[in-house]
Amino acid sequence: MTSRRPNDEVVIAPKNTRKAAGDSMAHDSARGHVRGSAVYVDDIPEPKAMLHLAPGYARDHAAGTVTHMDLSAVRAAPGVVAVLTASDIPFVNDCSPALGDDAILSDGDITFHGQVLFVVAAETRKQALNAATLAQIEVDAAAPTISARAGFEQGSLLMPDYTFKRKSDSTGTANAAHQQQGSLTMGGQEHFYLEGQVSMAVPFGDDEMQLYVSSQHPAEIQHIIAQMLGWTNARVMVDCRRMGGAFGGKESQAAQWAALAALVAYKTGRPAKMRLDRDDDMRLTGKRHDFECDWSVSHNDAGVISNVEVDLISRCGASADLSMGINDRAMFHADNAYFYPDVRITTHKVWTNTVSNTAFRGFGGPQGMLFAERMMNDIAFRVGRDPLDVRYDNLYRDGADITPYGMPVTDFTLPDIMQQLEASADYRARVAEIEAFNAKSAFTKKGIALTPVKFGVSFTLKHLNQGAALIHVYADGSVHLSHGGTEMGQGLYTKISQIVASVFGVDARAVRASATRTDKVPNASPTAASSGTDLNGKAAENAALTIRARMARLAASMFNCDNETIIFDGGMVKSGDSEIAFTELAGQAVLNRISLSSTGFYATPKLVWEREKAWGRPFLYFACGAACSEVEIDILTGEMRVTRVDILHDVGNSVNPAIDIGQIEGGFVQGMGWLTTEELVFSDDGKLMTHAPSTYKIPTAYDVPEDFNVALYSSKGNLEDTVHRSRAVGEPPLMLANSVYCAVHHALASLCPGQSPDLSAPTTPEAILDAITKIQAAK
Amino acid sequence: MRSTIEFLRGGKLVKLDGAMPTDTLLDYLRETGSCGTKEGCAEGDCGACTVVLGSLDGDKVTYRPVNSCITFLPVLDGKELITVDDLSVKDGPLHPVQDAMVKHHASQCGFCTPGFVMAIFAQYHGNNADADHEGVVEQIAGNLCRCTGYRPITAAAMEVCARAPDDVFTSRMRDTSALLADISGGPLKMEKGGYMFAAPQSVAELAEVYSQHPGATLVAGATDVGLWVTKKHVDIKQVIYLGRVKELQDITSTDDAITLGAGVTFADAMPHLETYGDDFQAVLSRIGAKQVRAAGTIGGNIANGSPIGDTPPILISLDATITLQKGETTRTIALENFFIDYGSQDIGESEFVASITVPKPAANTHLKCYKISKRHDQDISAVLAAFNITLSGSVISKCRIAFGGMAATPKRALALEAALIGFDVSKFDIQDVPVSKLNQDFQPISDMRASAKYRSQVAGNLIIKALLELQASVAGDAA
User: Fold this and answer.
1) Angle, to 10 degrees, between the axis of helix A738-749 and the axis of helix A657-675?
2) What CA–CA distances, in Å, run from A120 to A58, A81, A201, A267, A541?
3) B26 Cβ partners below 8 Å, 6+ apart?
4) Is the dihedral of CA A522, A526, A527, A531 positive or negative?
5) Closest to B233 (Cβ–Cβ): which among A36, A130, A677?
6) Do B112 and A29 touch (CB under 8 A)?
7) In whole angstroms, what is the distance from residue A619 CA to residue A265 CA?
8) How many CB atoms lie within 10 A of CB A777?
9) Do residues A238 and A41 lie in contact, with contact meaning Cβ atoms separated by under 8 Å?
10) pLDDT at residue B237 tops 50
């Protein structure tokens, strides 16, 4: 018999305390988090002779061409070992996710403030940061294009416009009683992951490179570095154990820093670490796209829509990055949960001299959806109905269930969710109270809104909808799990461990999720689009099922029974009266020369999407939820406070309810930040002025109301065959915060009955006071 | 004179030689293998690097959270240092604060978690009565979390901080006090290659060392100077630390006035300033957060000459004076005259702010203060307004009004003050409020915090707001 580990009680769990799918077990790193012992890239003990890097860029320019760059002072600075420029890159100078338009080191074009022109390697990080400021850079400056509106008016477009369009004979503008126009400016958002961008490259001899990164997409980093060095992918290994937050900001944006670390390691033969200073991180990496929306809507007296035409104008920045997918997703969600009989949705992707905007939780969805919700408020205020009733009447429903891109809306739990939330949040009574309060209160106004979220789950780039995993069962019955997904705090490793544990009938703590590594699972998609559990959970489940089938065959031969009668439960493998501990069966499998290692794979079924036709089924399903928020505003100062939030969200059959609730609460608050306190300010010459937490304000604990009630919808499970019939939860809850914006808008509407306030987002005190001023001026 | 930093950690005395004056505590920790403490922003705005410093307060040890990223290492001298790495032993049980965090699912990515654990640890060893939602939120206002939305962290803190502290730090409290008493003596001065760090212990020593090193930078909490080092990469060669100058920590109260030593932290000053009313307290509770208030001082808030410090406009409205000292010579001036222009104050070479004296409120005076910022906590004001108004019945008989964020210095609104004399707050039309007088007093600028237009508009509206609140309190008094 093989020896057992001393703590194998973890492996054989008492039946009733089994930690598997469906349990609210703690995050697998929770104890490490609270002790400070969970290791992030900058905590890894540094190899000998480590070099520390800093990026160098023209400090005063957002647009132009470098005419002369004198790096002698940089090279002469204390501790500097190497200063590299574009000409030092052996092969391909690109770190873009798709279109080949993001230079790792620019060879002289400056297209935004912070474009990296050189990298400094020094003995200490302080020396590198100091040296990076010493370059003498002369620039033939050009006039920068900064805002989306300005770029749009100049015709500065990154790529062609794209439109969804549907026109029927029986409906449309002609039959509508009302037609109204609107426009909305919504700001971008900085990710503000607490752990900044960081990568460490360790050369392994002359022809291999290992990287330790904080990235949602290690495979892409592997490919970019191989391509940069002219190597095959197989010579580069990329490892990511965990990120200190990512939120989309480490999907494509981690690559440049990893590539620079690899370049220095390649050139010097020494390990190299690039950890961006917070101000550089905020200046040099992309953010959520800010949008301008202009629309026209036709509706009847009840506010039921017959036609919507909307132009979504986004600031993409100085390269494509993921802007196409993000803008497409804004279009996919410009309907949110509502049926538009006739519709035209167009995106205009504006090229600007600002850092290239990128993925951020929701990936364009929040912007498309906020437009829809603001439009609902406008319609309701115009026709004099409660906005919730206008929302209900426009929801997808029987006979009105095809999206503007041709996908039928099925398994649509939203009407039920909204009605349940309306009751549990006591919506109607509170509306009456608020109206009474506002009638009496001259300088404080309250507002409330209950808004839905319907979010399409799947990458809209079809090939990314694949997951893979590698599982080993060791002779002591412990399980080693690798999969292509990365851990950024969302509890992915925990959930997948639970899924695998369920297959083997063991405690999830017996499943050890290892760092995500490109040499364990190749060609993995980014952990993004809320798909981490859907894709990698299914893949890991498949891998575990393969091993379980082999173990079941062995058990059946030992018990003299049919394979089909074998069950794995409570740490035991049994059939009838026969049983053997899972740990022991694993040992037996080794003795019987049975492989206890398997890969697993999953490709999302049913997806059909042809972008040219703008028609098909880009998503496997929709994730739904709703939120009701109440706010109070001071109309003298524009100060606002969120006073109560109620959320009901559908995660299907939850793999881990505690983790899912954490995603909902955290996503909501992050969305609330986007729409309230978080404001990106660029100077006229293109410099980001809010490049540190002293000037860029994400929510603190005070901003979250004490009265914050989050519940999971009692689901019968996803009708699609997702892992454990769960629904994705990463991004959708962020958009629940649209209720905060709409509640502020509602509070302001009390100042102008029959009209809709002109309120931009974020709703800073200044934005709110500005809206009030416009209301008063119109009187 | 000592040249070795001495502090307690893990119940043991640590002696540290050769530290540079502006080495940060965070870098020291991470470079010596204590990697539990994280760097989030290196400017004291995110709290990820929060550690706790214990200092002797009588025979008790008081624990306060500080941002280690902007705490200069020599400041540790004479204190107990507690980091997340010190709370529990490997493979042993979790500390009660850590345990509560796990139980409430209060970590996701985990990067901010050590900072939260330490901020909550300080409260766990502080006043249990403050462990309600409001108290906990105030305790963690200086810690940013981007994942959880705070709800589970707040819940964990409320649960654990409601209990009496019971951990290794309570059980060895007596030893800790004795050890701290032992190492708390004797001025510190370290010099190396043109670099100097001095921690004088009396005003006389301070005056002497500052005369010897007139180019030195005076540092109390380093909540501003720390950023010169971590953000602007300024190479500060000579630092004189004020935190151990005994007289600068004094708070004295007479019938007429309260005098605060320039080294009194916001945290220590707050209870003594209650006599000036709730509005002042509310602003004080929004200066930075606990970490900043535990280190930062009102003296520093004045001496750094910032146009957007929160206390100067309030203190100007209260007609505060400051006493400056150079060598043995002292002089006292009105605070409003200290601020000459942006970056220029009435202070000479080797002269330092010794104390601030604030007259106690006279009868029938009302202090109204407003801080306007994008975020409630840990934010810098776009505008700060302070109205110190004396009423005769319901008529304004005297007023001092000052604003921050409206000019290159904190500044009185003299035209507005003149226009408000004789104003009857009991009944007025909003159109009659002399808001336009502000245009004579201020021409604010636009920046990333607010536009000039908003600053002007909100400043005007704050006059209305103050008068409306006075109206309500007059009506309340009458009823």
Assistant:
1) 40
2) 14, 8, 15, 12, 45
3) B37, B39, B42, B49, B68, B69, B71
4) negative
5) A130
6) no
7) 42
8) 7
9) no
10) yes
- Chain B residues touching residue A708 (CB < 8 angstroms): 149, 151
CA dist A55 → A63, A133, A249, A527, B225 (Å): 18, 9, 18, 27, 25
Residues of B in contact with A690 (CB under 8 A): 448
Q: What is the pTM of this model?
A: 0.97
Please report the residues numbered 296 through 315 in chain B whose beta carbons come closer than 8 angstroms to any beta carbon of chain A: none
pLDDT for res A9: 36
Which among A551, A537, A548 has a CA at the least distance from the CA of A499?
A537
Which chain B residues touch A246 with a CB distance below 8 Å?
109
Residues of A classed as catalytic: 731
Query: Which of A27, A33, A634, A696 best tests the B interface by mutation, with the highest count of B CBs <10 A?
Result: A33
Q: By three-state DSSP, how is residue A457 classified? A: strand
B390 touching chain A per CB within 8 A: no
Q: A110 has which bridge partners?
A: A64
CA angle B80, B81, B84 (to 5 degrees): 140
Residue B278 predicted with pLDDT over 70: yes
From the list B102, B110, B372, the residue facing A765 with the nearest CB is B372
CB contact under 8 A, A693 and B36: no
> How far out from the chain centre does Cα A226 lie?
26
Mean pLDDT of all residues in chain B? 95
Pairing mode, strands A208-213 and A236-240 = parallel
**Four-point Cα dihedral A255, A261, A266, A268, nearest 10:** 160
Indicate the residue type of B26: L
- Please, which pLDDT band fits residue B184 given cuts at 50, 70 and 90? low
A36–B108 C-beta distance less than 8 A: no
* Of A508, A469, A472, A497, nearest in space to A586 by CA: A472
Can you give the pLDDT at residue A175? 64
Cα–Cα distance, B222 to B244 (Å, whole number): 14
Nearest-5° Cα angle at A502, A496 to A505: 140
* Encoded tokens for A366: 């929040």
Percent of chain A clearing pLDDT 90 (strictly above) = 95
CA nearest neighbour of B251 among B236, B241, B263: B263
Strands B238-241 and B217-219, how do they pair? parallel
Query: Based on C-alpha coordinates, what's the Rg of chain B?
Result: 23
Candidates B105, B373, B384: best to mutate against A (most CBs of A within 10 A) is B105
- Is ipTM > 0.85 here? yes
In this structure, are strands A51-57 and A272-275 parallel, antiparallel, or unpaired? parallel
Cβ-defined contact of A34 to B94 (cutoff 8 Å): yes
Structural tokens at position A472 = 């080993």
Q: Which of B30, B231, B375 to mutate to test the interface with A (most CBs of A within 10 A)?
A: B375
- Alpha helices per DSSP H over A616-764: 657-675, 738-749
Give first-to-last CA distance, chain B, whole Å: 65
CB-based contact, B445 to chain A, within 8 Å: no
Say if residue A341 is preceded by a cis peptide, omega within 30 of 0: no
Structure tokens at A179: 């037609």
Higher pLDDT, A330 or A169: A330
Residue A17 predicted with pLDDT over 90: no
Burial environment of residue B62 by CB neighbours within 10 A (0 to 12, 13 to 18, 19 or more)? middle
Q: How many CA atoms lie within 13 A of A245 on its CB side?
A: 23
The two structure tokens encoding residue A398? 């029987």
How many other C-beta atoms can be found within 10 angstroms of the C-beta atom of residue B430? 12
What does the pLDDT read at residue A360? 98
Alpha carbon of B231: minimum distance to chain A alpha carbons (Å): 8
